[in-house]
Amino acid sequence: MNNLAVLPIITPLIAGIILAFFPKKLQWVRPLSKIFILINLAIAGLLIWTVFSDGTIILETGGWKAPYGIVLVADKLAAILVFTTNIVAAACAFYAPHSLTDRKERYYFYSFFFFLISGVSGAFLTGDLFNMFVFFEVLLMASYALIVLGGDKVQLRESIKYVFINLFSSMLFVTAVAFIYGAVGTVNMAQIAQRVQEADQQGILTTVGILLFFVFAVKAALFPLYYWMPHSYAVPNPVISALFGALLTKVGIYSIIRVFSLIFVHKSGMTHELFIWIAGLSMIFGVIGALSTNNIKLIIAYNIIPAIGFILMGVGVLNEYSISGSIYYLIHDMLIKASLFLLIGTVVYATGTSDLRKFSGLIHYYPFLGWLLFISGFVLAGIPPFSGFIGKLLLLKGALASREIAIVIVGLLSSLLILYSIMKIFINGFWGEKDESIKRISLKGRMAPIVVLLALSIFIGVGAEFIYPFIESVSADLLQPEIYIDAVLKE
Amino acid sequence: MEFIISILAGILFATAIYNLLQKQLLRIIIGTLLLSHGAHLFILTMGELKRGNPPILTEGVSNYTDPLPQALILTSIVISFGITSLLLVLAYRTATENETDNMEQLRGNDNE
Q1: Given an 8 Å threshold on Cβ–Cβ distance, is B83 in contact with A167?
Q2: Residue A159 is nearest to which of B40, B82, B90, comparing CB atoms?
């Protein structure tokens, strides 16, 4: 029993409510939101420290005993992800005043921003399936408001599709929870896991598992359910795209990792084999999408899909290396996607267009920006010694150990194409003839958050020796569902 | 009783899917509404439908009603209520800004 587990959810919630009282006073809202997000980052840091030194924190809300009340479970995976979420959020909070117009900031941007963080942290920390649905709704509600912020014609058009598809999958989530409740009589994840194990995961349970996978796959934008994602992520302001790209799809894939490493693990021939196929197809179709367009925002948005494919591949293979690889890649991708979206946002700000054919020779005006984009392309594609490489190495090692040769080949080829899709921006936009029509404008304040994010993602690659033992202990815990079950139910 | 309600939920799901596949924005919203009703009825059915029993387990009372589905539904109803109202406003704004409520015409590739 330790209240630390609820603080990463409560703090942003309170911050959002406080900031909602005076949204028009930007001179107060801006510094206050930075202070709040740093406080929350410190809390998440404390959480990760406590969890790794003292073990999983269980919080039974309202003092109700574990299977009956709602539990919050801060295990190692949740703690790491909450911490990474807060790093990304802090970078976005510092970038936001430079990127958003005053008008957009006044329309409760910071309040919704904090509600989003609260929902994401909640989804990571909860130990109750229905509660997970509620936190999904919290973060989706905030995202609905953020995606239409500004209310452009294109934005409205894309966001209505976003809302429809998410509402549909949420309702299926409720139905899946109802099925689970009907079949095993509980919504507590640890107890579900226990009872599914006792029932040897027979017919109906696997079907419900697939239904849940469908729900999470829609949220995570996996093949063939990704079609709503690229356009709706490309239309809002870059800082909002960065939050969505780094956090929202990752909540979906986190749920898949959690549910399919804890609950539905007994018929892996049926479920996990399917995941490997879907992972491979996501990689292929994601990179095809990224190569097919000249809109630089869309290129980055499409690059989310193969990344999710890589993470899912680790879950599909389900051995120690592959799960470590998935977690490594998940953390790496949260950091690098946020920094890429912010970088591209800066490029769009500097050139005034997101069409790659309309500018060239940008390196003459913004050399630093150009090299940052170059490095992040390397980090994303997984060129050694950067962080993407460590994640992919572990994933491929795991896949080879399980004799899944086809997925290894697909993974390697798609990495190459991912690198090409980013380098395309660099070659066409930054090299080439000097475009005289571009005027050099100050990018003051925009670079610091990007540099911090990029430095961190380089650090988790170069400092793998330091990071890897932690990730390994996370995956060791994940592969033994009994640890989670015993921690929650205390038997 | 569970049997009838399950079929009713199934009918709601079917009509919801039919409406979701329409082109008009308002029809799609009605589709999502029906879908949420179907899902809620479904949760209720999962907790067994009984009448006249207290929702508590005390010593000596062996026949009780499961209170959890009600709690789940209430949460879910509030959420879908909120989202539907947001969706109606959003659809209205989209239709006025884009001057159409037809999903075919809202497809749009002009930002590629």
Answers
A1: yes
A2: B90
Is B106 within the bounds of a domain? Answer: no
Q: Is residue B112 part of a domain?
A: no
DSSP H or E stretch at residue A72: strand A71-74
* B47 with A181: Cβ contact below 8 A: yes
Q: How many residue pairs bridge chain A and chain B with CB atoms within 8 Å of each other?
A: 101
Give tens-digit pLDDT for A328-360: 999 999 999 999 999 999 888 888 888 888 888
On whether the CB atoms of residues A264 and A271 are closer than 8 A, the answer is yes
Q: Which domain holds residue B19?
A: 2-51+65-98
Contacts of A131 (CB under 8 A, 6+ apart): A70, A122, A187
- Helices A447-462 and A76-99, packing angle to 10 deg: 150
Q: What is the pLDDT of residues A34-79, one digit of tens each?
A: 999 999 999 999 999 999 988 888 888 888 887 788 889 998 999 9
Residues 157-186 of A with CB under 8 A from B: 157, 159-161, 163-164, 167-168, 170-172, 174-175, 177-179, 181-182
Task: Determine the residue type at B89.
Answer: V
The number of distinct structural domains making up chain A is 1
Three-state SS annotation for A40-63: HHHHHHHHHHHHHHHCCEEEEHHH
Answer yes or no: is B109 within a domain.
no
Backbone angles phi, psi at A72, to 5 degrees: -110, 130
**Contact A153/B90, CB-based, under 8 Å?**
no
Read off the pLDDT band of A370 (50, 70, 90).
confident
Q: Assign residue B86 the CATH number of its domain.
A: 1.10.287
Q: State the residue for tokens 């060129």.
A: A383
- Distance from C-alpha of B76 to C-alpha of A175, rounded to nearest angstrom: 11
Cis peptide before A23 (omega within 30 of 0): no
The span from the CA of B35 to the CA of A50, in Å, is 43
**CB of A154 less than 8 A from some CB of B:** yes
- Tell me the HSE value of A489 on the side-chain side, using a 13 A CA sphere: 17
Distance (Å, rounded) from C-alpha A48 to C-alpha A77?
9
Q: How close A266 gets to chain B, by Cα (Å)?
A: 24
- Give start and end residues of each alpha helix (H) in A55-128: 76-99, 102-104, 110-125
Quote the minimal CA–CA distance from B38 to chain A in Å. Answer: 9
Chain A residues with CB under 8 Å of B47 CB are 181
Contact (CB, 8 A) for A317 and A402: yes
pLDDT, position B112: 43
Long-range contacts of A133-136 (CB under 8 A, 24+ apart): A133/A170, A133/A173, A133/A174, A133/A177, A133/B76, A134/B75, A134/B79, A136/A170, A136/A173, A136/A219, A136/A251
55-94 in B: which are within 8 Å (CB) of A? 68-69, 72, 75-76, 79-80, 82-83, 86-87, 90-91, 93-94
Residue A334 belongs to domain spanning: 3-489
Q: Give the count of domains, chain B.
A: 1
In a domain, B42, yes or no: yes
